[in-house]
Amino acid sequence: xxxxxxxxxxxxxxxxxxxxxxxxHAHGKGAAPYAGLQERQIKSLSESDxxxxxxxxxxxxxxxxxxxxxxxxxxxxxxxxxxxxTREQVATLTRSFLDMKSDAIAAGERLISAEAALSDAFAxxxxxxxxxxxxxxxxxQARAELRYIHLSRHLSTLEILSQSQIDKYSVxxxxxxxxxxxxxxxxxxxxxxxxxxxx
Length: 199
Fold this sequence. Notes:
Layout: H1 2-15, H2 47-54, H3 63-66, H4 73-78, H5 87-123, H6 129-157, H7 163-172, H8 189-195
């Protein structure tokens, strides 16, 4: 069951566009859109991509959670004052963040190695179809594992936050408007503010 889930995630990750790496596939907009990229050590990863992976950064992999109301531990800790997180919440989020970072660094290294192997395969003789499939599977599995590490930590934060903290996080991050700033027509302002827990 677990191996089937990993295979499914790996396949899904393999067909998703690489949005985090800053690659621009705007064919026809310039005479040579990839000019200069041939100098990269790993052709599919920029130096900033590699640096982000090696520091355990999010690399944009958790956007499905982040933009759908599932905050991540790193940004929650950055906003701990504004969100009025309790000491216990901060301690739990700190542990989650440190574990995530450690796991993400290890998984990021595996992804870098997999992409390097793929790049090297094309630098020499053209890889055979079977070898190409294996290289792609390795890279897809490494990416899926890294993505799981980030997304799963976003899931775990919901268990320790109140709904009002989650709502406030969305406002602070610019994903939602503050209901306290605009009272809809037809609503009593005092009742509206009280209902939305406005200060």
